[in-house]
Amino acid sequence: MNKKIKILIISWFIVLISALPALALERELFNNTEAMPQDSYYGLRAVIEKDNTYHLKVNSTQNIDLLILDEENFLNYNSTFHGNPTAYTAEHLYTNTSLIEFNITQTEDVVRYIVIENANITSNGAISTGEVNVTIVLSLVLTSKVPGYTLIITLSGLLLVSGLLTLRKKRKTL
After folding, report:
1. What is d(CA 41, CA 72) in angstroms, rounded to the nearest whole number?
2. How far is CA 139 from each of CA 103, 143, 155, rounded to the nearest angstrom?
3. Distance between CA 159 and CA 157 in Å, rounded?
4. What is the DSSP letter of 21?
5. Closest to 102 measured CA to CA, from 110, 114, 111
6. For residue 104, which phi and psi values (nearest 5 degrees)?
7. What pLDDT, in 10s, does the model give residues 56-88?
8. CATH code 2.115.10.20 for 24-153
């Protein structure tokens, strides 16, 4: 293998290594499948830590509604569900769907309730027609906290390779 190919391989290796911190990996925190009877809801209490990103995926056999609520609004939703109408506001609301996938990030540590509804409570929501199987997956997205280093390492690697190539050309001309 000649030196140019070695240098090319090394430069690509440096670029790939420097890009690794920018890749997002996920660590699964919760994965559960529930059989939800008609006219019911499933609530999952989640502690969302500051500056972390969480990936939520919900898949169901029939259309459902998904709400993300803070504690006060969860209590109000629960009260409404049990026949005592109380106003509540969802931070995130997905209605009449069987596949939901999104990320949650907060600027402070908070408790949120992930509510999956198989009932006729949410306005313009899914109409409950029977039992539904729901799979819920909550993952922590793992990313680098220092993205600036990626650029520094990449540029350093490219400067090194450029310098090596330049020196090689100067030697040939002498």
Report:
1. 17
2. 9, 12, 32
3. 5
4. G
5. 114
6. -125, 130
7. 999 999 999 999 999 999 999 999 999 999 999
8. no
Which pair of tokens denotes residue 162?
A: 């450029």
Query: Mean pLDDT lowest for which of 75-84, 116-125, 163-172?
Result: 163-172
Residues contacting 91, CB < 8 A, separation 6+: 68, 69, 70, 112
Beta carbons within 10 angstroms of residue 108's beta carbon: 8
pLDDT 10s digits, 53-64: 999 999 999 999
- Cβ contact 63:126 at 8 Å: yes
Enter the DSSP assignment of 146: -
Alpha-carbon gap, residue 46 to 55, rounded angstroms: 12
Tally of helices (H runs) and strands (E runs) in the chain: 3, 6
Nearest residue to 66 via CA among 98, 35, 36: 98
Cβ(42)–Cβ(34) under 8 Å? yes
Mean pLDDT of the chain: 84
Q: How far apart are the first and last CA of the chain?
A: 24
What is the SS3 assignment for 119? coil
